[in-house]
Amino acid sequence: MQKTRSIFFFILFTFIVSGSKNISAQPVYDFPYVIPQYDFVNYGINRLHFPADSAYMKGFYEKMDKLIFEGVGKINIIHIGGSHVQADIVSGRLRERLATFFPGNKGSRGMIFPFKVAGTNNPGNYFVTYTGKWTTCKNVTYKANCELGLTGMSITTYDTTSSISISLKRENYPAYDFNRIRLFHRADSNQFKVKLGWLDSTQYTVQYNYTKGITDIYLKTYLSDLQIQFIKTGSHQWFYTLYGIQLENDDAGMTYHAIGVNGAGTYSYLKCSLFEQHMAELKPDLVILGVGINDAAGSSFDAGTFELNYEKIIEKIHKASPHAAIIFITNNDSYRKYRRRYYVNYNATAVRERMYNLATKHNLAVWDFFNIMGGLGSMATWQKNSLAASDRIHFSTAGYKLMGDLLFNAILKSYENHINNKYR
Question: In whole angstroms, how large is the CA radius of gyration of the chain?
């Protein structure tokens, strides 16, 4: 077994390094990808921390064993956050790395939301166009008077000329062709019916489940583009409310669902009454929680309330998927602006402390990005090196990709430890 493990990781490492596009002339302090090196980043502490027990991650890694060594099974990962995740750069980097770090891993694109229809920024790895008039509701809206699901957003149309078209990016990005589409929508049979544009009706079948608020569309071929048309076929149909679109296929592999809403905090996702129900449909094996930067943004931040909110979120996750592993991402260092000057936001340390408390209590993992990036005040250094935006809250594309590479490496290091222990 030891020989099998060693050969596997030798092949894996060779495959990764030979395929890397970020070869650096600087010393390499991380594994397995060769990534850009900066003297202000603490690569040596880039790992997952388990303050208590790591049994949940062991279950996740055993599913990885089946996928990597036997080529069977599907693994679902959900990454939840705010604007860091809505843009899908850091989460997109994780998705790319997980889809390509060993041969034969295909997986599917998973849950997406047509953000452009909602009038907000859309990830760059899929393109959205639409027709008709739509209204939007978000979990960041104060006293939002609408039903919301896992994605934290909904769009509604009363227009029978409405359609949504989606095209997955293919150039320099893993192919995520799909042969199954799942629509998460309001549980109401008075909604419009759906059909696919560009396809003859004989090329797919539609199954409606108005009790669950789910419509499944089964394709007879694989696609990378789709158009959903919303049509009125009966006098009782007068609207359509969409919560999200899941793009799936029958291939073994990892599916990485990115769930993010600009400005969202823990309190935002607690507004989503269908959060638990939708998560149960996705059946996550791993949930990555990167919510916290918006909770801690203001002077009114209360660490106790923050921890209590996360207690409720953890409870919902484990009700939906009892064996799911959970990784906390600590807040990045950030600044607050007051009268044209920037001041270090010390709330990041309180967020970090509360995440460690929760990880200890519930046997979860922590990825301590706050200390990895350099701790208090480090965001200014990241900005000077073109890794962060001028607001000193968000990152540049290069910064988000570095963050994604670091988290991927931390997860794979932990997986290597699992392999070492299993085949010792």
Answer: 22
What's residue 424's pLDDT? Answer: 72
The DSSP symbol for 152 reads: S
Domain final residue pick, 250, 267, 295: 250
Domain boundary among 211, 229, 250: 250
Across 267-294, average pLDDT: 98
275-282 vs 303-320: helix crossing angle, rounded to 10: 50
Residue 32: per-residue pLDDT: 65
Structure confidence by residue, pLDDT tens digits, 170-204:
888 888 999 999 999 999 999 999 999 999 999 99
**Residue 20 confidence (pLDDT) above 50:** no
CATH number of domain containing 296: 3.40.50.1110
75, burial (CB in 10 Å: exposed 0-12, middle 13-18, buried 19+): buried
Domains identified in the chain, total number: 2
Other CB atoms within 10 A of residue 333 CB: 26
Among candidates 68, 115, 45, 414, which has minimal Cα distance to 252? 68
Q: Are 116 and 154 in contact, with CB atoms under 8 Å apart? A: no
The better pLDDT of the pair 424, 391 is held by 391
Q: Are 394 and 388 in contact (CB under 8 A)?
A: yes
Name which of 266, 284, 276, 269 is nearest 354 in CA terms.
Answer: 266
Q: With CA atoms as reference, report the closest residue to 68 among 3, 11, 108, 2.
A: 11
Peptide bond between residue 32 and the one before it cis (omega within 30 degrees of 0)? yes
